[in-house]
């Protein structure tokens, strides 16, 4: 293949003919524009330029192998690189200031979880911040997640000798110093160049457990390898374990394949996400997509088509070919409770259903032999007007309390303080997941931020325990919190039935 001239590549910068450079090779991605699950606008923005850096934020390099055959046009002539189009680096919000003027606050100035968000907002590309902070529809579910924690107050006991406190908790027999773990979040490459590898290093250094997302930028094997080598460096002093969040691919063979890969890699449990049969309406993402489409001259119709294709999942014939790693296009809307039977046969370890949102499903999960449930509404990113996980926990306590003693019960969504963790544990949770605070900490400060975020939560937890009058998490009891305000709003079948008469 002849070397490609930069000036020639630069001319192919439209939807009629779109060429991009990836790792010194030129690709014609024109026919792939409408198939790209991330949208045509992402690619068009890079048209006629070197897209390698942007590409690496979102994908492993071997993704290029999944372009239609014939897409590779040839190697770039290195002497003509300067003739390529140059794209503006993604700018921070507010435009450009913090990084350049070194205004990112020192990590020690992050003394509570919201500080990490403020810092990340200064340095993250606008698009990445929108991805992380985004939520469904009018953000009602997200607001409920954040607000409901403040509707519960403590009932502290005094004079209890709280000189020493023990914050240990186990998840399926794996003990750590923390009753919280890092929640699974996809595409961390858009947040930090080290993506999940950087996050997992922070987790290991502090000894927290972490759940790894199917939609990770890095492969499940890479993440596990990094974890193991970091554990080795710690000389056995870190108890960190990795669990795997499983989006079940539509195709059974691929679903099995993925499970085998994860099992072989050594993940300790399968967190099956069940609140995402289709992607929720991510309002801010939609606006951004539309803006990007308009900026590169795509009509509303073009962008609507692209979005619909990757959101509806099983129509996307491209996605299932992505190297055994499910992609957004592979969310399965067909999953039922029966699927747990074959999953159980294939997966010997603990199974947790992630995204339980009412008492009936909590009970069903227990009856289907699940080892745990995670009460979650996906950080308010899925169903509009979904209940907070606290509300679901209260339902379970009221309508099927037997679940709490029988299987492990986790919560996530809106936890921003070690005292929130304590409230969940008083009401019977085994442990809780924390999402965005860790993501923002990673985005602003890398590993250091992740470690700092653990410290902040732990410090709040320890102080909270002492002021509440307990020295071990086993002493957490429901009577240590006043949940009356939330209970007032809880679903009541009787009232509902009467109102229908
Ligand atoms: C040219 C070859 C490319 C291929 C084969 C490809 C493939 C894919 C696939 C399969 C997905 C689905 C989700 C995932 O696996 O994370 C995706 C999503 C995405 N891609 Fe690409 N892509 C390419 C280029 C690019 C480039 C150059 C960019 C950035 C400029 C980009 C940005 C994105 C984004 C932002 C998403 C959405 C991520 C999400 O919502 O989870 N892609 N792409
Ligand atoms: C940016 C982002 C990406 C996420 N990606 C996934 C994912 O790939 N799989 C999944 O099951 N949940 C995902 N979640 C949901 C989290 O696992 C978790 O339920 C939620 O973030 C908890 O709420 P919090 O962020 O308020 O702590 C994601 C959440 C965010 C914010």
From TrEMBL:
UniProt GO molecular function: heme binding; metal ion binding; oxidoreductase activity
Residues covered by the Cytochrome b5 heme-binding domain: 1-77
One Pfam family cited in the UniProt record for this chain: FMN_dh
Keyword presence, Oxidoreductase: yes
SUPFAM superfamilies from the UniProt entry: Cytochrome b5-like heme/steroid binding domain (SSF55856), FMN-linked oxidoreductases (SSF51395)
Keywords (A to Z) from UniProt: Heme, Iron, Metal-binding, Oxidoreductase
Start and end residues of each FMN hydroxy acid dehydrogenase domain: 105-486
InterPro entries per the UniProt record, alphabetical: Aldolase_TIM, Cyt_B5-like_heme/steroid-bd, Cyt_B5-like_heme/steroid_sf, Cyt_B5_heme-BS, FMN-dep_DH, FMN_HAD, FMN_hydac_DH_AS, L-MDH/L-LDH_FMN-bd
Protein name stated in the entry: Mitochondrial cytochrome-like protein b2
């Amino acid at each position: 293949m002849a070397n490609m001239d930069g000036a020639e590549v630069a001319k192919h910068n439209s939807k009629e003919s779109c060429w991009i450079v990836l790792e010194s090779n030129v690709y014609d991605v024109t026919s792939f524009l409408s198939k790209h699950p991330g949208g045509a606008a992402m690619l068009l923005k890079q048209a006629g330029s070197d897209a390698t850096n942007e590409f690496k934020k979102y994908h492993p390099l071997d993704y290029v192998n999944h372009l239609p055959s014939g897409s590779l046009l040839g190697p770039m002539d290195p002497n003509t690189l300067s003739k390529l189009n140059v794209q503006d680096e993604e700018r921070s919000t507010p435009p450009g200031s913090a990084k350049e003027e070194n205004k990112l606050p020192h990590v020690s100035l992050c003394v509570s979880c919201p500080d990490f968000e403020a810092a990340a907002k200064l340095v993250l590309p606008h698009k990445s911040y929108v991805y992380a902070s985004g939520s469904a529809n009018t953000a009602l579910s997200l607001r409920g997640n954040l607000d409901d924690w403040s509707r519960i107050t403590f009932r502290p006991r005094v004079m209890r000798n709280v000189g020493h406190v023990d914050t240990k908790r186990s998840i399926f027999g794996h003990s750590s110093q923390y009753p919280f773990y890092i929640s699974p979040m996809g595409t961390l490459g858009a947040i930090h160049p080290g993506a999940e590898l950087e996050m997992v290093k922070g987790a290991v250094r502090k000894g927290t457990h972490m759940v790894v997302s199917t939609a990770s930028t890095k492969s499940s094997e890479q993440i596990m390898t990094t974890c193991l080598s970091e554990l080795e460096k710690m000389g056995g002093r870190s108890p960190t374990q990795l669990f795997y969040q499983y989006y079940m691919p539509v195709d059974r063979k691929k679903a099995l394949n993925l499970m085998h890969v994860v099992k072989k890699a050594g993940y300790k449990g399968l967190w099956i996400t069940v609140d995402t049969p289709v992607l929720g309406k991510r309002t801010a993402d939609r606006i951004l997509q539309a803006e990007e489409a308009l900026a590169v001259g795509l009509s509303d119709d073009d962008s609507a088509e692209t979005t619909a294709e990757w959101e509806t999942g099983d129509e996307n014939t491209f996605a299932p070919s992505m190297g055994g790693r499910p992609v957004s296009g592979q969310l399965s809307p067909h999953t039922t409770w029966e699927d747990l039977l074959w999953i159980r046969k294939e997966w010997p370890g603990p199974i947790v259903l992630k995204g339980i949102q009412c008492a009936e499903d909590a009970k069903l999960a227990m009856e289907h032999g699940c080892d745990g449930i995670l009460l979650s509404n996906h950080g308010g990113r899925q169903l509009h007007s979904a209940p907070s996980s606290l509300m679901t926990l209260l339902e379970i306590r009221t309508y099927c309390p037997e679940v709490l003693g029988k299987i492990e019960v986790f919560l996530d969504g809106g936890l921003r303080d070690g005292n929130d963790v304590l409230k969940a544990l008083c009401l019977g949770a085994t442990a809780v997941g924390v999402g965005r605070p860790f993501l923002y900490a990673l985005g602003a400060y890398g590993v250091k931020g992740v470690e700092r975020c653990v410290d902040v939560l732990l410090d709040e937890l320890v102080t909270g325990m002492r002021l509440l009058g307990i020295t071990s998490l086993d002493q957490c009891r429901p009577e240590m919190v006043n949940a009356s305000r939330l209970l007032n709003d809880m679903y009541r079948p009787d009232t509902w039935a009467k109102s229908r008469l």
